[in-house]
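Q: I'm building a small set of examples for a reading group on sequence design. Run inverse folding on the following structure and report the sequence directly after it, with nothing in between.
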């Protein structure tokens, strides 16, 4: 067997730091080099080939009220961010389809989940807005989304205050961490000020979704957080009122989840919360203890929502700005290279990705959209 080249050795160091630590004692692993634009583009081009075959004639990717037009928005935003030109036929057809779903009230939806769908559409239109063509569409959609926040008739003492759900307040399910982080990201992308009351109120809800008892969070579950869960985020704090919830912990608290923790950290950083803030410090500490690109930590089924996890992981790590991220064991990770290698290894021969039924990731177009979006953050800066 020929000796490893330096490039091969660096790749090994990036994807197998634990093995290297074992083999060389206490020496830290060699720093890897984040993938080049060409490396990423080759994987994205394969994904584009799959998405071209998956796209319907009218531009959508899954003609279902449960997934559209949000899925098409997610695909379009991911492709453009990853370097696919806006005039590429797949992207152009997708955006034309999105345009057809803009409603008179400013929302971008079809039959339901209007907050979730509109938030994804805002981000897609923003990616396509270099010529300011969608300024009015984005502004109207942002106004619509603002009206979907849980605040009317509530005081800031109410647990639901500031949150967002799939649809209008009062609808099925109530607010949750996932929809609230999508709202924050979409409104900031639309140009809404970080000091806008809607953003500040959303941070109130997000702070209460963290397993951290503090001046910002007096929720009972936070006071019962185990040492392992401290600092992480939960999907829906209302689960604390359900003794049969599978999110409950033996201590009486709620389990922290990887996808939600990166979503919470991303929201704090995007909205201007400082890195020395106790909430940010606690979230980063949880991530240091649970750093991985091989599973969605905190989930009972480790592959549950894995591609959703990858996209919040990538956005949060990019915002944090630690290219060599040190975990709790003092091992440094070139997270961009590690994430790239993991996604490349999971890509199927036809260019797609597919996960478990959880989060609907058994639908290849959805898993592929999240994967491409995550890949767009792995390029060298």
């Amino acid at each position: 067997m020929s000796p490893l080249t330096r490039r091969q050795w660096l790749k090994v160091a990036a994807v197998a730091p634990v093995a290297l630590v074992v083999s060389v004692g206490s020496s830290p692993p060699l720093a890897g080099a984040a993938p080049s634009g060409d490396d990423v583009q080759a994987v994205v081009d394969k994904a584009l080939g799959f998405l071209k075959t998956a796209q319907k004639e009218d531009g959508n990717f899954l003609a279902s009220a449960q997934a559209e037009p949000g899925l098409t928005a997610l695909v379009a935003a991911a492709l453009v961010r990853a370097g696919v030109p806006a005039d590429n036929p797949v992207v152009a057809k997708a955006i034309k389809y999105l345009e057809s779903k803009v409603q008179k009230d400013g929302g971008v939806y079809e039959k339901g989940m209007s907050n979730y769908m509109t938030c994804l559409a805002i981000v897609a239109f923003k990616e396509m807005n270099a010529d300011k063509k969608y300024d009015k569409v984005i502004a109207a959609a942002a106004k619509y989304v603002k009206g979907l926040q849980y605040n009317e008739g509530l005081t800031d003492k109410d647990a639901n205050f500031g949150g967002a759900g799939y649809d209008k307040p009062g609808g099925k399910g109530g607010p949750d961490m996932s929809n609230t982080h999508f709202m924050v990201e979409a409104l900031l992308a639309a140009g809404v000020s970080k000091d806008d009351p809607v953003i500040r109120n959303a941070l109130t809800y997000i702070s209460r979704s963290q397993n951290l008892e503090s001046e910002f969070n007096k929720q009972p579950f936070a006071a019962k957080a185990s040492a392992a869960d401290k600092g992480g985020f939960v999907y829906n704090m209302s689960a604390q009122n359900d003794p049969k919830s599978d999110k409950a912990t033996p201590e009486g608290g709620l389990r922290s989840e990887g996808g939600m923790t990166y979503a919470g950290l991303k929201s704090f950083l995007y909205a201007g919360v400082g890195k020395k803030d106790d909430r940010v410090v606690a979230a980063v500490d949880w991530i240091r203890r649970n750093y991985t690109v091989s599973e969605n930590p905190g989930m009972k089924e480790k592959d549950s929502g894995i591609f959703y996890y990858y996209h919040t992981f990538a956005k949060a790590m990019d915002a944090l700005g630690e290219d060599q991220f040190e975990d709790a064991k003092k091992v440094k990770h070139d997270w961009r290279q590690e994430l790239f290698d993991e996604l490349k290894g999971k890509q199927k021969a036809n260019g797609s990705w597919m996960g478990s039924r959880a989060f609907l990731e058994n639908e290849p177009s959805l898993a592929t959209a999240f994967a491409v979006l995550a890949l767009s953050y792995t390029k060298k800066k």
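The chain is about 45% helix and 0% strand.
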